Amino acid sequence: RAEDGYALWMRYAPLEPTLAAHYRTRLGQVVAPDQTATQRAARDELERGLGGLLGSDPQAPGTAAIGPALVLGTPQSSALIAPLRAQLQSLGEEGYLLKRTRVGERDVLLVAASRDIGVLYGVFHLLRLLQTGARIDALDVRQSPRLRLRVLNHWDNLDGYVERGYAGQSLWDWQTLPEWRDPRYTDYARANASVGINGTVLNNVNANAQSLAPQYLDKAATLADLFRPYGIRVYLSTRFNAPIELGGLDTADPLDPGVQRWWRDKAAEIYARIPDFGGFLVKANSEGQPGPQDYGRSHADGASLLADALAPHGGVVMWRAFVYAHDVPADRATQAYSEFVGLDGAFRPNVVLQVKNGPIDFQPREPFHPLFGAMPRTPLMMEVQITKEYLGFATHLVYLGPLYEEVLRADTRARGKGSTVAQALAGMAGVANIGTDRTWSGSHFDQANWYAFGRLAWDPRQSAGDIAADWAALTFSADPGVVQPIVGMMMASREAAVNYMTPLGLHHLMARGHHHGPGPWVDGGPRADWTSVYYHRADHSGIGFDRTAGGSNAVAQYSPDVAEQYGDLARVPAPLLLWFHHVPWDHRMASGRTLWDELVARYSQGVRQVQGMQCTWAGLQGRVDAQRHAQVAAFLRIQLREAQWWRDASVAYFQSVSGRPLPAGEAAPP
Ligand code: GCW
Fold it and tell me: Separation of 527 CA from ligand 1 center, angstroms?
């Protein structure tokens, strides 16, 4: 049933009859090869899609040489496409072409690529065009991904629990693998391929060494077999001391020959089962995870150990730069840059450094991470969270497209004006929000974040608004009367959450541990940086973390132009004000209000924005099926209650510190 959300954005609901007829006459007969698994996946998807959209079975595949035709293939698999070989090559290994043209007397629509996987991507693109009612008469689309690595990171444990997962249990049923090939695994692969995701790390970065044990490798190999036709490679998170925990060695020192042999053998063992295994993702020397520093070695030494084991097989190491050591530096935000920037050029060619979007930890808003642009000799991936650990979990409607877009477009100034973060990237990693929940993502709107991640990883220059419009049309209805209000809600939703949680550059005010709900008062924990007061620094004189030269000087980690702007109270963008500055409560803001009044106003604004979403959604009653309408409406009620809670608790706490009266018209929190 489409209404339960299981079909995601691949609903293929019947098109309005005249539109369906229009497409039917243009598409005609399907001519599609079916010799390989990927070719069959493309053909099956097309059949499923056209069958649903056009309300009848497409004309039987065949080779009759009359009438319009929809022709799928590569130069190898299709004689009609063979002449395009050179053109297709310029689109790369994963690119594709959609083109309406004439071949002899025939109108044909070509879905053509150098490799089968490009054809599958092209089929998904074509289906998206049909679902959104696009014109196809003069279709001429050329697409290739801008980023090589487009990877989901599952924080799934072997016992089925998903760390920071709000959508049920892990999809991977380790208990019944490898025998039981749940069809849901294939639906997962289809969804990913439909947005161009080409890799998945199956297990949590807080890794269990057992995931490399032979019985788990067998299970992973089955998943890899199921994902392969969809262009998705399997990766594993590895625990750095696996040679000890799994191999029985007495060290995991990266320079120890026995350890090096152990990893070489382990890699060979994996590739014997998974010939296209993607490689390893590693969290080392962070939050208690073992790593090379335990042996007095560097991150580069650690990464090289694994990279050398994988290199003969073509695998990569995604080494995380998220390092939270136990000895808290004066400013937590500076640690990754300090540990890694000096290692630029020291990594093997098959190492990619995986850097979170911001220097702290997936906050509602952070400045871009200072490592972007600062390591020109090291391929970097940007890691974003799709699961909303700090953004209200699965119940709050927060569309993350604008967050991703904001950081991708941020100008690092590393090589002059216009050096965007996106230009510094070789890939993107998204911490998955997927689980066994019937909706996959814990709510209908959280599916949009998975979707937007894939679309932006394919091409970071796309706009979050356009992606939202596509998603809304695919998921609910292509009727502009439905799409426009939904896009309006989505596009404002992230700023709403910033307002009711952490306005003006505040960060990490969440309750400790679970990170759901406000906790700006949290103090006296075991580690200074596990407390909110560490981050907001509110006192009688003002609020904010001074990261200028007079404070922690974290601002100096950015290139000079950026550092100058962020470090200047008069020029720092208001959304980052309290990230970089400790500001007096009576400071005059651009709005003319004092900082204190502005802060309260933003909190209240966030609550009103949620009420606005409720109004918009109420207006869609009857235009969205009752089941999904009711769930979204219920979740918005939860969100409103919690936004109010955030606002009241935060304002009350900060008022206890600022000693200022509430501005006129702002009711005192109960
Ligand atoms: O955001 C923090 C989370 C941890 C997570 C860690 C990381 C997987 O609270 O749950 O651990 O980041 O990214 O390694």
Answer: 16
Question: Does the beta carbon of 642 lie inside 6 Å of ligand 1?
Answer: no
In residues, how long is the chain?
Answer: 670
CATH 3.20.20.80 at 149-168+179-393+408-436+454-463, yes or no? yes
Say whether pLDDT at 104 is over 90.
no
d(CA 321, CA 300): 11
Task: Give distance in angstroms: CA of 618 to centre of ligand 1.
Answer: 36
For residue 65, what pLDDT is reported?
Answer: 63
Q: What is the pTM of this model?
A: 0.98
pLDDT the model gives residue 668: 80
Looking at the CA of residue 356, tell me the nearest atom of ligand 1: 13
Closest atom of ligand 1 to CA, residue 431: 13
Q: Is 411 in the pocket of ligand 1 (CB under 6 A)?
A: no
In the residue annotation, 287 being an active-site residue is answered as yes
CATH architecture, range 2-143: 2-Layer Sandwich (3.30)
Could you write out the three-class secondary structure of 402-470?
HHHHHHHHCECCECECCCECHHHEEEEEEECCCCCCCCCCCCCCCHHHHHHHHHHHHCCCCCHHHHHHH
**Domain boundaries in the chain?**
2-143, 149-168+179-393+408-436+454-463
Ligand 1 pocket test: which of 240, 322, 527 has the largest number of ligand atoms within 8 Å of its C-beta?
Answer: 322
ipTM of the complex: 0.99
- Report the separation in Å between the CA atom of 282 and the middle of ligand 1, taken as the mean of its atom positions: 13
Q: Is 361 a catalytic residue?
A: yes
| Whether pLDDT at 125 is above 90 | yes
pLDDT digits (tens, 9 = 90+) for 495-519: 999 999 999 999 999 999 999 999 9
